[in-house]
Amino acid sequence: MVVRTSSSPSTSTPAWEADPAGALARLREAVPLTQCITNAVVTNFTANALLALGAAPAMCDIPGEAGLFAGIAGGVLVNLGTPTAEQRDAAREAVTAPTPWVLDPVAVGALPVRTALARELLAARPAIIRGNASEILALAGVGAGGRGVDATDAAEDALDAARALAERTGGTVAVSGEVDVIVDAERTARVPGGSALLTKVTGGGCALGAAMAAFAAVAEPFEAAIAASAVWAVASERAASGSRGPGSFAVAFLDELAAVRPEDLTGRAEFAR
After folding, report:
1. For range 158-172, the mean pLDDT
2. Is 14 helix (H, G, I), strand (E, B) or coil?
3. Which of 35-44, 87-96, 110-119, 233-242 is predicted least confidently?
4. Which long-range contacts (CB under 8 A, 24 or more apart) does 148-151 make?
5. N or C: lower Cβ tally within 10 Å for the chain?
């Protein structure tokens, strides 16, 4: 059975469904402090994307501070794109806080340092794991990873691996692709749409992980991941419609993130019961 979202409040939403529109409204009201331990390539874009969405970014990734800051943040992102020794220690600190956190296992598989760290961090039970299909397969131990940060597998190919990771951690796993696939131990959602230009902008996927962390401050993990994916789909489609290429798209995408309204997310996700 497949159903589409409605704009009804989350309190009346069936347990197997979610209310991304309500999540966006709550995020805009709360302006959640979102800590990002993320890679050096995408820091600026990620911060700007969070600001445009309506969250408050904080790139606090120094050992000795990261754990303390995670305790006051609403949500935490741990992105393994450039895992320096300091960032690895900061990540280990941050995930001990009682704050929902997102693991983005960038390029795990063939690269040993980040792969070992990602598997170590799984024991801290991330609320959400977000990655492309090749990263999710590798993290689950059933694939070798993609070509660097690029996936060589389709999102649907990682469905079983994503479910296994969700059961292991008790959280949600979001597999990005032409259709995003989002699962927890019992539920499955798909968010179609979005623009391929997101793959031509450094940080398009990494900032999505940060958005999931922001939404996790105001929604349960399954709903948070769906809401972030739906916002990304809507904003990227609108940005692409008036862009000449990746450069103008990147600017327009930030504008469209700020312009997305809760009602724009109605019907953007499909749920399998």
Report:
1. 96
2. coil
3. 110-119
4. 148/107, 149/81, 149/106, 149/107, 149/205, 151/177
5. N
Q: What phi and psi values does residue 20 have, to the nearest 5 degrees?
A: -60, -30
Q: Is residue 13 pLDDT above 60, yes or no?
A: no
Tell me how far apart the alpha carbons of residues 29 and 35 are, in angstroms, rounded to a whole number: 18
Q: Who contacts 194 (Cβ-Cβ below 8 Å, separation ≥6)?
A: 178, 180, 232, 233, 236, 237
Residue boundaries of the structural domains of the chain = 2-272
Residue 18 near residue 222, CB atoms below 8 Å:
yes
Cβ-based neighbour number of residue 141 at 10 Å: 10
CB 259, CB 236: distance < 8 Å: no
CATH, domain 2-272, list 3.30.9.10, 3.30.360.10, 3.40.1190.20, 2.30.130.30: 3.40.1190.20
Please give the angle made by the CA atoms of 227, 187 and 114, to the nearest 5 degrees: 70
What is the average pLDDT across 104-120?
A: 93
Length of the chain (residues): 273
Residue with tokens 């993130």: 257
Instruction: Using a cut of 0.85, tell me whether the model's pTM lies above it.
Output: yes
For the chain, how far is it from start to end, CA to CA, in angstroms?
6
Cα gap 60→164, rounded to integer Å? 31
**What percent of the chain lies above the pLDDT cut of 70?**
90
The pLDDT of 114-132, averaged and rounded, is: 96
User: How far is CA 152 from each of CA 81, 91, 136, rounded to the nearest angstrom?
Assistant: 18, 27, 11
- The half-sphere exposure of 3 on its side-chain side, counting CA atoms within 13 A, is 12
In the structure encoding, which two tokens stand for residue 161, read together? 């691996």
